[in-house]
Model the fold of this input.
Amino acid sequence: MIEYLGKAVYESIAIGPVCLLEKKKKRITDARAESVGEEAEKFNAARAAAKADLEKLYESTLKRAGVSQAEIFQIHIMMVDDLDFEDAVMAKINEGFNAAYAVSTAAEELASMFSAMDDEYMQGRANDVMDISGRITDHICGVTGGVSLDSPAIVVAEDVNPSEIVGFESGKLLGLVTSKGSVSSHMAIIARSMSLSCVVATGVKMDKSYEGKTAIIDGYEGKIIIDPTEKQLKDYTRRLEKQRADEAFRRSLIGRENVSADGKRMEIYCNIGKSKDVSAALENDAHGIGLMRSEFLYLDSSDYPSEDYQFNEYRATLEAMAGKPVIIRTMDIGADKKVDYFNLPEEENPAMGLRSVRICFERPEIMKTQLRALYRASVYGKLKIMVPMIISVDEVRWVKKMAFEVRNELKAEGIPFDDKVEIGIMVETPAAAVISDELAEIADFFSIGSNDLTQYTLAIDRQNSRLENLFDPRHKAVLRLIKTVVDNAHAKGKWVGLCGELGKNTELTEFFLAIGLDEVSVSAPYVLKVREKLLSIDSSNIDISKYI
Ligand code: PEP
Ligand code: MG
Done:
């Protein structure tokens, strides 16, 4: 028995034989070429063929895994067409190198640039670059055929590309272990959305001797066990059977109300980034969107997103949710979510710096453009606007005044909007929690941002992996603040949601229900898990003293 530890991507167990994924090696040794024109032609033809492959992959992924996963291949198509990449390849061809060598070296240089970046998301892009370059060089070298599994297996590889993970025949891929990779790579994002048991970054390169051995992936602990003991196999087989039965049971909860066993209601909504994520929310029967992180519109753009671009995104989200509530948060740029074009100052402590609504106080036109787009979209569904990082009543007044001016402008322009849109705030600073009695007089609703509320209450940087074991959102200080916020809001007749990661912790569902939280918003795979828990709770019988 051998055990390795890596990073857990998705909480799920898998058991099966190991299949080593060894990529067909192309020999790109003959670096020099006779004719620049011929090599440029080969490059262009291979690029067109790679694009055609990606378009097919987009279509098949759309059917198998949904819009948000398929979009990765649109990004790859854009990367294949990227002019900087083309220039880098052509520069090498013009230096006299052959097309395959030019593509692979240009891609390696680009990938090592991404790998060297501090940001884990950008590091994940190195894998995408190598994926598309491999696809193009396959066409140049005439290498055909993708990855296929004869029978169900746990795939073990150095790294796996997004296109490879969706290329496996449905049902054959039991789980995935990679020695490299990061939890925020596109491959990991796809693995999660497929609910695939997956561990990355084990740091262990497995050789042929592992082929066919029995392996267990523990996606809770980030562990892979090769040649398990009899006892381990028995225990994990039992856990796997239970997991399967649990999943089937949860699907059967689609269509049910979000109420406890004794009929007390607590809504379960879904957190999303962009309109494309609505499909996953609906597939999991979310009754609303509790947090649309609108800053993703800014993060995915190379310049400030225009009013029309934002309007189309908000409208698409509202229309897709067909009258169910959609809470869109105004942009939360800053701290760990930076974009170059904002030209934000270098700060000693960005999490406590010029962030989200604070940027708008300095640059009100950003908030104005966003509010115009939001109000214009408001006629297409049930919109609620939410403002992050609030610390004072004056700040909410400022935002409401801005919203008032925007409504007047739209009225004067004859543009329709819903003038009943609620304007709420995120309670994610200890300051907001402590003065929530006053904030409840001016805000239409609260949504508790437990991620930042924990970070600021405990004085622990949520980005600092060395302090992960101290970052405890269940700390009494945090839970007491949450209760205070709910009590203060209810005293003024206002409702309260919670949209931080804490919402998916089903050990706390009874606490949230007992204190009267009106709604929790979680990412799509957790909507039915929280509903299952809620349905089992008897609210008349909860002792909250053990939590606070
Ligand atoms: C939070 O802070 O809990 C929250 C939901 O916002 P974000 O994680 O985007 O900062
Ligand atoms: Mg936050």
Remarks:
- The pocket of magnesium ion (ligand 2) is lined by residues 388, 428, 449, 451-452 (CB under 6 Å).
- The first helix runs from residue 36 to 65.
- The radius of gyration is 25 Å.
- The chain has three domains: 2-22+147-230, 36-141, 260-546.
